[in-house]
Each structure stands twice: as C-alpha cells, then as structure tokens.
Amino acid sequence: MKLRDFVLRRIILAIPVVFGVLTITWFLSYIVGDPITMYITERTPDAAIPGIRAAHGLDESPVVQYFIYLSNLFQGNWGVSTSTGADAPVLELLAMKFPATIELAIVAMIFAIVLGIPLGIISATKKDKVQDHITRIFALSGVSMPIFWFGLMLKYLFFFQFSQWGLPYLPGGDRYNIRRFSYEPTTGFLLVDSLVFEHNVYMFTDALVHLIMPGFCLGYITLAIITRMMRSSMLEVIKEDYITLARSKGLTERVVIYKHALRNALIPTVTVIGLAFGGLITGAVLTETIFNWPGLGRWAVRAILNADMAAINGFTLLVAFIFVIANFIVDMIYGVLDPRIRYG
Amino acid sequence: MTTTPDDLVLNVKELYLNFYTYEGTVRALDGVNMFLRRGDTMGVVGETGCGKSVTAKSILRLVEAPGKIESGEILLYDKDQETGQIQEIDIAKLQQEEMLGIRGNKISIVFQDPATYPNPVFRVGDQISEVIELHQDLSLDVLNMKIAKLELSLSASTTSENRAEIEEKINYYKQQLDNPPKPDKKSKREAAKLKAIEMLKLVRMPAPEQVANQYPHELSGGMRQRALIAASLACNPSILICDEATTALDVTVQAQVLMLLNQLKKEIGSSIIVITHDMGVVAETCNWVNVMYAGVTVESCATLELFEKPIHPYTAGLLTAVPKLHEDRDRLPQIRGTVPNLITPPSGCRFHPRCDYATKICKEKKPLLEEQKPGHWVACHNPLNS
C-alpha cells in the first residue's frame, strides 16, 4: 500500500470516531437537563415558554432534535453559547479561545519532550546510579504534585520571591504585558502574530517569557510520564540482541544508544506523547486559572457549570478532533520510526 | 599448551570468568584454554551452559556486568599491515575504548538467531556499511567511485564542450590516486554503501542492490544470516566467531551457510571459530576441536583424531550419544546425570560425578590440560585409549 492510501484510510477511519463522540455527547447532554433553561429567566412569563421551545426546535422528539443538531453542525452553526455574558456563536468563541490554549499546550509539550526523552535515556543508561535516582525523584514529584499547588509554588518563587530579591523574575500571569503592548489577534497565536504580522520582536520575546511558567507547569506531569516511559522502554531495548550486535561491530556506546537503541525505544514513548497532547488541551483548566490564561479550559469549565449545552458540545467535538489528529500524527511517526509498521 | 606463536592468531590461556548474581557467584569459566591457528576452522563444542558463548563474548569483551573476567590471557596476534610484524595484544587487559578498534574489524562475530540480531529499523545495506565506514579508510574507494561516475556521464554526454570539461575533471581525480585526499562524510557514506553491496554479492545474496535497500523483516532467515555474515566479514577480520550461527536455520539453509563459510574463509583469509553443540557441524567444517565441559576445556585436538580416538570420558560419552545410521537401537546411550550448578561446582574435576571412570583423585584434584599424545591435549586423570 502506498503512503497516500495509508493516509486516506486513516482519515476515513477517523470519521466514525468523531461521529461517535458527537453522538454520545449530544445524547448525554440531552439527558442531563432540559436545555430550555438556557433560554429563559425567572422573569419569563409561563405563556411564552412554549413559543421559545418551538423557536429552538426543542419540542421535537430527541431523534429529530439530534438530526437538526447534525444538520446545523455541518452548516457551520454550532449553536449559541449563553454562559459567557453576551450570547455569541460557539464556533466564533472556540476560534477565539483555542489559539491561546494550543500555544500553551505546544510549549508544554516541547518542555516535556525536550527534557523528558534525554532524562529517560540518562536514567536508563545509568540505571540505579545517582543520575537515575535524581531523575526518578524529579519525575515522581511531577506526577505526585497537584498542578494547582505546583503552579502556585512556581508563581510564589519565580514571580513573587524573585521580585522581592531584586532578581529578574518571570511574569505571574497573562499572555503578554498588557501595559506595554496592545494586541489585535490575527491568527490568535500570539507568537505567530507578533513576529509575522506585527514584526514586533519585543512583543514576541515578551510572549515567550510569559509562556515559560505556565508551559512548564502544564507540561510537568507529561514530562514525568515521558521520562519514566522512555526509561522503561530504553531498558527493554538495551537488552535486545541487536544492541549486542551493534556493540560487537565496535560502535561507540554513544552511537549504540542514540542510534540503534533510541529509535526502537521511541516507539512506545511516541504513543504516550500523542495521547498526552490531547490531555494537555483538556487538562489546561487549572493552569489557565492560576496564570490567568484566556484559553479554552476556563471557558469550558464555566460552560459546564452553567449547563451551556451548545458550548459543551462544541468543546467536546473540538477535543475529539484534536485527539484524532494527534493519534494520526503518532501513526505517521510510527511509520517513520519502524519500517515494520509502515503503510500498515 | 605450547605452539610457536608464528602461526597462531589467538591464544586463550587459563581464562577464569565469574558472574556475580544474587544467588551467588557463578563460576562460568574455570580455566579455558584454546588456540587458533591462522587459516584454521576451530570448533568449540559442549552442552548448553558449558561456557561456549561466554568464551566467545569474552574474546570480544562483550560480557556485561555482572560478568567479570577474573584472570587469564586472551592473546591476539595481530599482523601489522604495513610492516608485516606480528604484535601480541592481550584482550583481557584492554580498556573498553581500545576494544572498539578490534570489534568488527579484527575479530567479528555472527550470532545465533537471525530473527533478533539485525536491528529491525535500519536497512540491511546501512547495517553493513556502518561497519565499513567505521573501520576502513575509504579515500581510495571514494576517488574511484567519483571517477567511475564521471566516466559514466562522459559516455552519456554528446556535446564536445561537456566532454572536455568532464575529461578534465577525470584527469584531476586520477592525479590524486596515489595520495587520495580525505573524503567528506557524504561521499564516504556512499562508497561504504557500494562496498556493502559488494559484500552482499560475496555472500551470494540474490539481487544484492535491492536487498541493501530492504529492511530485515523483508528477508528470510537464511538471507538475514547471510547479511549478518556479510557485515561481520566486511572489514576482513582475522578471526570470525560463529556463535551457533547455523542453529536457528533449517537443515538445508544450514548446509548452504556452512558451505559459504568454508568458501569465504579461503577468499578472505580469516580464521574461524565455530561454536556449536552439533557434532555434525563440527565434522563438516572444522579441522580442530575444543571440547568444553562446565567452563573447562577438557579436550583439544584435530577433528579426525577426536572422532576416531577420543581420550576424555566426556568426549567419548558425547560421541556415543550421536545417533548413527547403521546402528539399530531402541535407546540412545547417554551421559548419566545433569550439567552441574556452577554456583557450587563439583570439587576436583568438574565431570567426576557423571564419570564412569572416576577415582579418588578426580574428586580432590583438578586435572590440568596436558598434551597426552602429540597434538592432543586432554584434562583428565584417567584418560581413555592410553
């Protein structure tokens, strides 16, 4: 099978997944409450309710309502979110909030990969030595610390204490320094906008500095998981026969580990990375709250608390898309890493 | 064992090696002695767990913790290519960094299982050219490759202007032939790849250019083993160790590989150590045999002599256990008992609990490997046929 067929097949296979997700979330949201509550207040006269119900198509049977929802979805009408003050189309809100979250998630992922993989390799090659123990403690704290506490501690140290000590300190929140810059989103990705559209390097570095703390805070758990995963798969691979063969060729230990072992050991780690990326998007709620980040997570939580069904459905659908895309990319990377999986 | 070192390539003397495990110290090698003459094919036979593979791995210093060489010498007689002088290197005393130049270059190894030894994620050709790139000076090959390429384009081009330009280039490269410049990494890699294809041709691989670009899982077991042999012969090693190299192959492929090894030995001029538990393989390929039992060399002599007149009771037992075509028996004879636990090995001769000829001295004193007959070394207090 050619690569093109493989990609095509993956895309076709993704359709039922996304479809299943949106069906399940819609029916779940249908059972949990009457969506009419979103459109009325305590001052709405009882006589007006049936009219409102009919206007939103809520007097139909659930199956008909589901198909109305589907047809609206494909026409780009994802419903109206009512929980964020002024009523606004869900799609518009998603487009507005999404870049901030994805930017944060990507930075978190970069932290996790760039630190996690080398740390995992070191702790595998220096198994049961000091380096391994230090890495283990570092990784275990990552998965054990609650993210809200860790975020607050980071902020306390690098923002508050550093400024007290007169050291250069990291900003305590926001995407950029609102007193220095005014920002009109073009793509919504601050790093892209500042550099490509506004040609403002100062704003770019400012945005970057603002990303360090929340990025690390969000990525720490993933970093810990990647480190441990990398360590265990590396330990497994080092025992393989082909590593003995590589050593018998007279290759240096460095080449043996970083060429022959790493590529094989990366395969399970890549799976974890793919799954974690979806988790970063949905798990950003706490980080976004602590660092006052105008992203999706906070918005989704507010929607859930207010039973804002259109917003919840929209958010879930987006997350499902991201999971599907992340797994698709993981599958492609598999093929690059391991020829046995290629064009699977 | 004394032989003139002139015709020797390897001499292992009194090698002791322990594994330090949680259950206790495994005395895996307890005085291994063997020598390999230039151009010989030497067999090492013995039961599973008698230390054949560990010996092979210690010759390459590939035994990993918790294994440790305690004492003994592994002498490699390396012929200097320029002066022709033979220098003696004790592998047992080298640092790991110093071993890098020996592994895959002067001594190489072919392992047992062609399914698990090639790296699944790299192309067959790359796995061979990797060794070539590592150990060989390819400056001349790179230059020849460039000239060949230009000559090809010369025959293809038509305009005279082009031709003159290319001819000028060819002449420029030809002038450098006596003193080739150091090639850049890319062209070195390319030349190594061409050489890898040459190696695949040497091991009689069908469609070598195509196979070089394939991955191990796309090849059959026999082809994979050929590719591994090609990689280990790529640098013309003076010693090739075949650690059960044919055990995992089916009988017909096994025969092909054995024949191939015998032919290649003549072409490349390597000496071969064949590690096996198959007496048939020994009879077919080796002219000298070492018999090992529980980490000790018990007998060492020419193959024919071993099969005709074994002196050590263990060897005699092994040979009677080989089924013979002209005999009609219900049950094959066997050596009674099992392989001893090497954490608490038997005192004296390690074979004495299973030996029919054992006497008091066997329990108390370890027999030394002695030349009982000319060219026939045995470690036994009560040798047979003498």
What does this structure look like?
- Chain A has 13 helices and two strands.
- With 344 residues, chain A is mostly helical.
- Chain A has two domains: 3-75, no CATH class; 95-305, MetI-like fold (Orthogonal Bundle).
- In chain A, strand 1 and strand 2 (88-89) form a beta hairpin.
- In chain A, helix 1 (3-32) runs antiparallel to helix 13, helix 9 runs antiparallel to helix 10 and helix 12 crosses helix 13.
- The model of chain A has no long low-confidence stretch (mean pLDDT 86).
- Chain B is α/β, with parallel strands linked by helices and 386 residues long.
- Helices cover 36% and strands 22% of the residues of chain B.
- Chain B has 13 helices and twelve strands.
- In chain B, strands 6-7-8-3-9-10-12-11 form an eight-stranded mixed β-sheet, sandwiched between helices. Chain B has a four-stranded antiparallel β-sheet with strand order 2-1-4-5, with helices on one face.
- The interface between A and B is medium-sized, with 19 and 29 residues.
Search tags:
heterodimer; A: 344 residues; mainly alpha; 2 domains; two-stranded antiparallel ribbon; 13 helices; 72% helix; B: 386 residues; alpha/beta; eight-stranded mixed β-sheet; four-stranded antiparallel β-sheet; elongated
Secondary-structure topology with pairs:
The complex is a heterodimer of chains A (344) and B (386).
Chain A: H1 3-32, H2 49-55, H3 62-74, E1 80-81, E2 88-89, H4 90-125, H5 130-144, H6 147-164, H7 190-197, H8 201-238, H9 241-248, H10 253-282, H11 284-290, H12 296-305, H13 309-337
Antiparallel strand pairs in A: 1-2
Helix pairs in contact in A: 1-13, 4-5, 4-8, 4-10, 5-8, 6-8, 7-8, 8-10, 9-10, 10-13, 11-12, 12-13
Chain B: E1 8-20, E2 25-37, E3 41-45, H1 52-59, E4 67-79, E5 86-90, H2 96-99, E6 107-110, H3 124-135, H4 139-156, H5 160-175, H6 185-202, H7 208-212, H8 221-233, E7 239-243, H9 251-269, E8 271-276, H10 279-285, E9 288-293, E10 296-302, H11 303-308, H12 313-320, H13 360-364, E11 370-373, E12 376-378
Parallel strand pairs in B: 3-8, 3-9, 6-7, 7-8
Antiparallel strand pairs in B: 1-2, 1-4, 4-5, 9-10, 10-12, 11-12
Helix pairs in contact in B: 3-6, 3-8, 4-5, 4-6, 6-8, 8-9
